[in-house]
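Need a sequence for this fold. Nothing fancy.
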C-alpha cells in the first residue's frame, strides 16, 4: 500500500507540473499552492497539463528491443540483469522489463487532460484539439503495453485517489479496441500540420500512421486478416496527405534541425544541454573521449545486423560508428573485437554538439514517414496476395534514399521478406525489431540463430510477452501473471 500511495502521489504531482509539446518553448510555472481545485481553470492551464503528457509520451528504452532480438549484444561486464535479459533467463524482477509503471503514469496524465479540459472556458476548437492530442498519447502507451505484456488493465478516467486501483486485466482485443477508438476519434479532430511554434505536436497524420501500425500488428501472421487491408488503407491516407516526406539524406532525419521536420511524424524532442538524453554516449565505445564523460558501451551491434547492410548502403555509416578521431589520433573499431573500447557502436541518435553528460538534444523517433511507407508496402502485398505497383513504389522510395537499386519482379513471399529486411535496416535502434519479430512469428528463430558471444538463449514461445513486473504484481493482487513466468 505504501508503494501504491507513493505512485499515486507522483501521478498527482506530475499532473500539476507544466511543460509544452515542444521543448523549444519549455514553460515552467510555479506549482506553489496549486491543487485540483485551483488549477485547470484557464487555457494556459490546459496547455501546461497537456505538456506533461508529451514529456512522458511513451518513448521506449532501446536496450530491451536490441538485446532480446538479434540486433545487439550487451557487454558482459555490465549489470547482471542485462545479460540475463539477453540470454532469456528472464524473471519478473528484471529491472529492464518494467515499462508498465511509466506507461500508466502517462496514461493517467492523458486521462486527467481528457477529463478536466471540458470544464475549462476556452476556445472550443483548441480544447478539442488538446483532448485529441492526449488521446493519441494515451493510445501510444496502451499500444506499447499490449505489445509487451498482452492484455492489461484499462483505465480511461483520472486516478486521483487510492480507490479502485486494483483493476483486473482486459483481453488483448479489448485493449486494441480502446487504442483504435482513441486514434480514430483523434484523427478526425487534429490538424494536418502546425505552425513552427507548435512543431512536434501530434497531427492527424501521426494518428493515422500510428493506427496503420496498430492494424499491421493486429494482422499478425494471418494471411486472411482484414487488418492487412485496413493497415494499407490507413497508411495510404498518410501518403496521400502529402504532408510528410523523406529527407534526401538519411542522416538528416536524425539531425538537430529535423525536430518537427517532414519525416518525423511522432518524436520525443530534446534540447541540447538543457533537457537532453544520453543515448549516443550510452552506446558509444567505452571510455571514448569524444563523449562528455566517456562512452558507456551498454550494448554493441551484432555481426548479423552489421553485415546485413550492403557495402554501398548509405544508412550504414549513419547507424554505426566504425572509427573515431580525437586529438588527431584515429581509433578503428571492430565488429568482432570483444574489447568494449574497440567495438563498433550505434551512433544514429548521437548529438555531437552536446557538452554535458546526458545532454544530447537529438529527437528519439516514435514514428517516421519511412516506417509508414514500409507499413504500406507490407500490408498492400498481403492484402493483394502479391506486390502491387504502389507497394513497390513505397518500398523503393526507402531503398533509393539509401542508395540501393529498385526491386522488381518479386514473388509475394520474396517481396514480404524484402520489406522485413528493409525494416530492420531502416529502423535499427528505433524500437521496432522486437515488435516486428513478434508480430511476424519470427522471434524465437531469430534469437536462436544469433549465438554470438556464446549467447545460448533459453528462449521459449511464451517469451513473446514480457512478464508483468514483480513490483506491479505485488501491488495488485487481482493481476494474473503471463504464462511461463
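Here you go.
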Amino acid at each position: 500500500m505504501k508503494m501504491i500511495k507513493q505512485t499515486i502521489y507522483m501521478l498527482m504531482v506530475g499532473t500539476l507540473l507544466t511543460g509544452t509539446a515542444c521543448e523549444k518553448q519549455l514553460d515552467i510555472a510555479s506549482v506553489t499552492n496549486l491543487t485540483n481545485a485551483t488549477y485547470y481553470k484557464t487555457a494556459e492551464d490546459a496547455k501546461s497539463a497537456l505538456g506533461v503528457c508529451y514529456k512522458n509520451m511513451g518513448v521506449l528504452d532501446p536496450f530491451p528491443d536490441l538485446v532480446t532480438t538479434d540486433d545487439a549484444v550487451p557487454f558482459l561486464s555490465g549489470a547482471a540483469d542485462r545479460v540475463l535479459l539477453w540470454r532469456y533467463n528472464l524473471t519478473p524482477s528484471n529491472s529492464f522489463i518494467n515499462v508498465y509503471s511509466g506507461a500508466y503514469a502517462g496514461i493517467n496524465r492523458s486521462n486527467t487532460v481528457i477529463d478536466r479540459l471540458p470544464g475549462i472556458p476556452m476556445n472550443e476548437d483548441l480544447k478539442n484539439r488538446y483532448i485529441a492530442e492526449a488521446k493519441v498519447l494515451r493510445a501510444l502507451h496502451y499500444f506499447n503495453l499490449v505489445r509487451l505484456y498482452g492484455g492489461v488493465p484499462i483505465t480511461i478516467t483520472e486516478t486521483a485517489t487510492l480507490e479502485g486501483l486494483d483493476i483486473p486485466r482486459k483481453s488483448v482485443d479489448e485493449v486494441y479496441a480502446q487504442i483504435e477508438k482513441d486514434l480514430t476519434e483523434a484523427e478526425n479532430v487534429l490538424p494536418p500540420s502546425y505552425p513552427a511554434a507548435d512543431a512536434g505536436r501530434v497531427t492527424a497524420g501521426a494518428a493515422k500512421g500510428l493506427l496503420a501500425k496498430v492494424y499491421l500488428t493486429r494482422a499478425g501472421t494471418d494471411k486472411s486478416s482484414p487488418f492487412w487491408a485496413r493497415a494499407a488503407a490507413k497508411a495510404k491516407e498518410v501518403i496521400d496527405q502529402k504532408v510528410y516526406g523523406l529527407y534526401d539524406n538519411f542522416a538528416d532525419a536524425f539531425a538537430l534541425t529535423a525536430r518537427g521536420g517532414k519525416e518525423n511524424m511522432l518524436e520525443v524532442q530534446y534540447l541540447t544541454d538543457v533537457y537532453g538524453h544520453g543515448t549516443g554516449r550510452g552506446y558509444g565505445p567505452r571510455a571514448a573521449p569524444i563523449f562528455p564523460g566517456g562512452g558507456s558501451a551498454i550494448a554493441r551491434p551484432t555481426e548479423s545486423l552489421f553485415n546485413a547492410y550492403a557495402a554501398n548502403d548509405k544508412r550504414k555509416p549513419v547507424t554505426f560508428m566504425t572509427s573515431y578521431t580525437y586529438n588527431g589520433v584515429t581509433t578503428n573499431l571492430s565488429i568482432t573485437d570483444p574489447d568494449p573500447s574497440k567495438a563498433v557502436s550505434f551512433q544514429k541518435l548521437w548529438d555531437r554538439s552536446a557538452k554535458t553528460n546526458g545532454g544530447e538534444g537529438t529527437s528519439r523517433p516514435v514514428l517516421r514517414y519511412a516506417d509508414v511507407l514500409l507499413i504500406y508496402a507490407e500490408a498492400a502485398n498481403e492484402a493483394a496476395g502479391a506486390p502491387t505497383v504502389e507497394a513497390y513504389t513505397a518500398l523503393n522510395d526507402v531503398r533509393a534514399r539509401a542508395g540501393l537499386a529498385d526491386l522488381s519482379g518479386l514473388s509475394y513471399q520474396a517481396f514480404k521478406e524484402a520489406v522485413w529486411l528493409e525494416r530492420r535496416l531502416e529502423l535499427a535502434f528505433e524500437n521496432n525489431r522486437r515488435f516486428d519479430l513478434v508480430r511476424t512469428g519470427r522471434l524465437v528463430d531469430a534469437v536462436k540463430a544469433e549465438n554470438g558471444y556464446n549467447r545460448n538463449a533459453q528462449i521459449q514461445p511464451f517469451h513473446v510477452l514480457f512478464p508483468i513486473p514483480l513490483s506491479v504484481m505485488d501491488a495488485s493482487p487481482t493481476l494474473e501473471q503471463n504464462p511461463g513466468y
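For context: The chain has 18 helices and eight strands.
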